[in-house]
Amino acid sequence: MFQQLKNIDTAFRHIKTFSVFLILACVFVCAFTVYKSYQFVTNQQQHIYILANGKALEAYSAERKDNVPVEARDHVRMFHFDFFNLDPDDKVITANITKALYLADNSAEKIYSDLKEQDYYSDLISANMSQQLTIDSIAIDVNQYPYYFHCYAKEKLIRSTSIVTRDLITEGYLRNVARSDNNPHGFLIERWNILENKDLKTENR
């Protein structure tokens, strides 16, 4: 009889131990499943799909700090394209300069006003001259804030009889502002300055 009771007690301990391990295993499996599900949902929420021309294109969202160099360079590029790409049409000039001035502070407006007072834009129109800009490189220092940049570009003045190529170097600082339709990258150029704008060569057409 005592042996039977001992066997029952041993069996109960084994069952108890087995039950504890089973419960712990179930808790671990449930916790792992919840974690992986949360990780999957978070990962999926970082993906967005853009519909363009009837096709769904996948895009990936990221923290702004990861994209600062890319967005900053594109902001500087957009500003310089709008400010320097001009045609002999006062509406085109006004439209491009207006877009550029949304991306910079009054330092750009001052340079625009100086050029306007010098009849630079009037001379473009009267001479039927176009101005085109090609960006060579943009250097941004993201280790300091506001972000300091240098822009290196080539500027072409296209006349009916000649093409003048100029070397253009500018500098400035970028600070963060709210994004908008007029300023999609959310930067503002401050203390913009033209360091060099000299003729390199003249070609006859």
Tell me what the structure shows.
It is a single chain. By secondary structure, the protein is an alpha+beta fold. It has 2 domains: 2-48; 63-204, Nuclear Transport Factor 2, Chain: A, CATH 3.10.450.230. Helix content is 47%, strand content 34%. Helix 2 (64-84) runs antiparallel to helix 3 (90-101). It is rod-shaped, with a radius of gyration of 32 Å.
E-strand count: 6
Report the top-level CATH class of the largest domain. Answer: Alpha Beta
CATH superfamily of the largest domain: VirB8 protein
Rg (CA only): 32 Å
Q: Which strand order do you get reading across the main beta sheet?
A: 3-4-5-6
| Sequence stretches where pLDDT stays below 50 over 5 or more residues | none
Order of helices and strands: HEEHHHHEEEE
Number of domains: 2
Q: Bin the helical content.
A: 40-55%
Query: Which fold does the CATH topology of the largest domain refer to?
Result: Nuclear Transport Factor 2, Chain: A
Give the class from helix and strand content and strand pairing: alpha+beta
Number of helical stretches of at least 4 residues: 5
Give the overall shape. rod-shaped
Overall pLDDT: 84
The first-to-last residue Cα distance is: 118 Å
Instruction: Please summarize the sheet with the most strands.
Output: 4 strands, antiparallel
Q: What's the CATH architecture of the largest domain?
A: Roll
Approximately what portion of the residues adopt beta-strand conformation? 25-35%
